[in-house]
Amino acid sequence: MNPSSDTPANPDPPPTGVAELVMVYDADGGLRGEIAYNWGRLRRTAHCSLCTITHNLVKERRSWADWRAGVGVPVTVLHRNERPPDVESVSGDRTPCVLARTEAGLTYLLGPGELDACDGELDVFERILTTALDRASLDLGG
Q: Is the pTM for the entire model greater than 0.90?
């Protein structure tokens, strides 16, 4: 405690605001990438747990589109071969993943293990993301 007041001497700093969520699929984009991923999925040699959260078999899930529109910050979703250098530098070969962009740069929030634990369920994803944001002292502002 600060001797001259009732406030702690070193209060926790307020959470840092997130400017953007950046998500990277564990798949390549473009026609060739989509065909390769879907062929691998059928053969059970390719799996992307982020894809399972965001898409059904043929298109983006409505629940995902609604969440993305209401989350309060821009959400950029990229394929592995679409990553700009800063995103590739932070994500490396740890895809799928979720990153947070702040004034200080990118923070790695969720990786393959955490996204696998969602089992394709958006509500589980939301809980795990909220926990990761809290742990990193980050705030979506909503």
A: no
